[in-house]
Amino acid sequence: MAIKKSDLYSSLWASCDELRGGMDASQYKDYVLFMLFIKYVSDKYGDSEDFAPPVTIPRGASFKDMIALKGKPDIGDKINTQVIQPLIEANTRLARSDFPDFNDPNKLGEGQAMVDRLTNLIGIFQKPELDFSRNRADNDDILGDAYEYLMRHFATESGKSKGQFYTPSEVSRVVAQVIGISAENAVAATTAYDPTCGSGSLLLKVAAEAGKHITLEGQEMDVTTAGLARMNMILHDFPTANIQTGNTLAEPKFKDGEQLRTYDYALANPPFSVKTWSTGLTLGDSGKGDPYQRFEWGVPPAKQGDYAFLLHIIRSLKSTGKGACILPHGVLFRGNAEAAIRARLVRSGYLKGIIGLPANLFYGTGIPACILVLDKENATARKGVFMIDASKGFIKDGNKNRLRERDIHMIVDVFTNNEEHPGYSRLVPHDEIADNDFNLNLPRYIDTQEAEDIQDIGGHLHGGIPARDIDALAEYWQLCPELRAALFQPNRPGYFDLQVEAAQLKDTIHSHPQFRAFIQGLEQHFAAWREAAAGNLRALQRDCQPKEVIYTLSENLLAHAEGQPLIDPYAIFQHLMDYWAATMQDDCYLIAADGWVANTSRIIETDKRGKRKDKGWTCQLIPKPLIVARYFAAEQAAIEARQTELEATSASLTELEEEHGGEEGCLGALDKINKAEVTRRQKEIKSDPEAQEEIGVLRQWLKLNKEEAAHKKAIREAEADLDLLAYEQYPKLTEDEIKALAVDDKWLNTITAAIQGELDRVSQTLTSRISVLAERYAVPLPEVVDEVVKLSAKVEAHLKKMEVSAS
C-alpha cells in the first residue's frame, strides 16, 4: 500500500501535538524532524548489505532500537547515547549540533512526563503508513515533500523572529527556474551554491530543476539550522551535499586557495537588512580591506547588509555563472552607498532581471521582497533589465500570502520568454534606468493601476450608453460581430440604448447563434484535450512517477488553453493543480504503489478513551458514489424519490403543527408534540362530541407521523441494501472498469466541470458589464429632476392637507 501524502502529513503533524506546550515550534521542530530522519534512513538503509549506503546505520542505532526504549525511565538519555552518538560517529557529515537533546527536562518534561512524551512520539512513527521501506514512490520525493510540509508549518508557528530558517517552497521554485538550470544544460559537474542556505530548500529546488545529482554546497550561520539542512539533503536523496556552518561574509568556508570558490549557479535568501553584517570584517571606506574583493563597487551601509550578500554572490559566480538573490524592495531605490552600488550593478550588465513579489510571503517578515536575477555570461550584450511586477498574484493562506501554481508558472514563462505584458512586465533599457538615476523601483517602469471606469457626463445628462464603453468590449464583437447589433440600437451619435430587457440580457447573449457557436467551439476544443488526457491516464502503470504525471497533464492543458480567446489559460491550469493537490495526487500515488486496484477498507475511529468504533467502509480510489452512479442508478433514484416523499410528508406535518400549535391550538396544549402525547390526548377526548375538530387534527397528525416513520424506515433499509450492493461490486470490477471510474467519472469529470466554469465566466463577464452600463445610464438627469419635482409636489400637498408648513 502506498504512503498517502495526506495521511503522512497528518501523522507527522500529530507527532507535533506530543511536543506542544513544553516548547515553541522553533524548538520542537528539531525533535520531529529528527524522528522523521531516523525513521526514513532506518527504513531505507538500515538493512542494506549489497551496496554502500549514503547513510550508515550502526548496529543498535536504528529506529527499531528506539522502539525498544519505549517506556524506559532513561529513554531520553539512551536515545542520546545509543542512537544519536553512534550515528554521528559513523557518518562524518553529521555533527552532534545537528540533533536535539532528547534528555532535556526543560523542553520534554521531567520524570514520567518525559518518558510518556517520548514513548508516544516514537509510537506515532511506528504507524504502518510511515513504513518507508515499502513505499515504491520514494524516488518521487514524497519524503522531501513531507519535510517541506513540516518546515512550512513550523515557520508559520514560529513567529516573526524565528521563521527565517525556511524559504517558502513556491518562491524557491521561482528562483530555481528563472536562473535557467535544466536537465538539458546541467551535468554531474555542475555546481550550485547558497551562502545563506537555511534549511537548504533553495539548493534542493535547483537540484530538482537540474534533474540529476549536481554538486551542492551551502553555508549557514545558525548551527541548528545547518543541521536541518544536512538532514534535508539526506531526505531528498542528496547525501553528498556539503553544508558548512559559519558566517559567510566574515568567514566563508568555500574557497579555492585564498579566493572564493566560483560556481555555475549561486543563489540566496539572506536575512533582510541585517544590521550586523560587517561583524568580523575590516573593510575601510573603499572596501579594499576585504581579502576576497567583494566590495570593489562600494561598501554597503553599516546597518543594511542586503548588498553585501548580493556582492558576495556576484563574486562567487564563474564568468559564465547565473544567480539570484531574494532581497527587500528597498535595495531597488535606497540612496547613498546603495545607489552607487546599484549604478555599478546596472552598468556591469550582470543584472538580467527583477521580479517583484507580493507582500507577506516570507515567515520572518511581512514586507514585500524581490528577486534580483544575475547572468554574467551575457553581460556585455545586455541592453536592459527585464522587470516583472508580480505583486498582485497570490492567494491568502492563513495569516500569510502564498504564490499559487498559476502565479509561479506565469512568472517563469514571462521571464524566460521575455514577454512584455502591460501592467505586468517589460524590458527596461539601461538608458531609461540611467535617466532615472539608476532607481530600479518597479512602479517607475510598470504601471499596475487598473484603468479607471470613467463616468460619461453626456450619458448621465441625456441618456444612452457611450460608444466608448461598448467599443471597450471589442474582443467580444470581433468573435460575435452580429451580437453587438442584437444588443444595442443607436440613440444619438456616440451613444446607444440596450434594446433588450435587462432580465433577458443573459438569455439573449447565451442564445445568440454566434455566441453559442463560439462557446461550443471552446467546448469541442477542450473535449479534444480530455480525450487525449484520458488515453494517457489510462496508460498509467504501477511504479509510475506521479510528479511526471501531473507535469505532463498540466503542461498539455496549459498549452491547449493558450491562444484561446476570452479565457485565462492560467486560471484553467490552476483548477487542475488545485484538484491534483486535493485528490488526484493521492490517487496517483496509490496507482504507483499498487496498480489499478480498488480495495475497500474499514473506517475505524478511536475515541479519547481508546475505544474503537467501526464507522463503515470506504475506498479511496473509487468512492462509493461513483459505483452507485455507474451501476446502481435506478436504486439510487428510488431512494431519492422516497426522500422527496419524506420531505413532502415532513413539510405537511410541520405545517399542521404550526397551524394548530401556539396557545390556542390543540397541539399547543400538549406538553410535547410526539406520538405518545398525541395518542394519549386522542384517547382522552374520543367520546367527547364537542371535540370532533380536535380529534380530526390529532388523527391527521398521527397519519402523517406514521407515513414519515414508514418513509424513514424504507429509506434506511434501501440505503443499507444499496450499501451492500456497492460493497459487493468492488471485487467484481475489472481493471478497465476501474480505469473508467477513476479516469472518466472521477478525475476528468471534475476537471471538465472546472473548465466549463471558466467558459461560463465568459458570458457572465459580458452580461455583468453590460448590465452595469445599462443601469448607470438608464435614467437621464432631467428625468431624475422631473421625478424629484413631482415627488416634492406630492409631499407638499400632503403637508398642506395636514396644515403643516414644508419650511
TrEMBL record:
Pfam family, one: HsdM_N
Reaction it catalyzes: a 2'-deoxyadenosine in DNA + S-adenosyl-L-methionine = an N(6)-methyl-2'-deoxyadenosine in DNA + S-adenosyl-L-homocysteine + H(+)
Annotated keywords: Methyltransferase, Restriction system, S-adenosyl-L-methionine, Transferase
Lineage: superkingdom: Bacteria
EC number of the protein: 2.1.1.72
Any GO MF annotation of the entry: site-specific DNA-methyltransferase (adenine-specific) activity
Domain Carbamoyl phosphate synthase ATP-binding: 87-94
Annotated GO biological process: DNA restriction-modification system; methylation
Similarity-based family: Belongs to the N(4)/N(6)-methyltransferase family.
Protein name as catalogued: site-specific DNA-methyltransferase (adenine-specific)
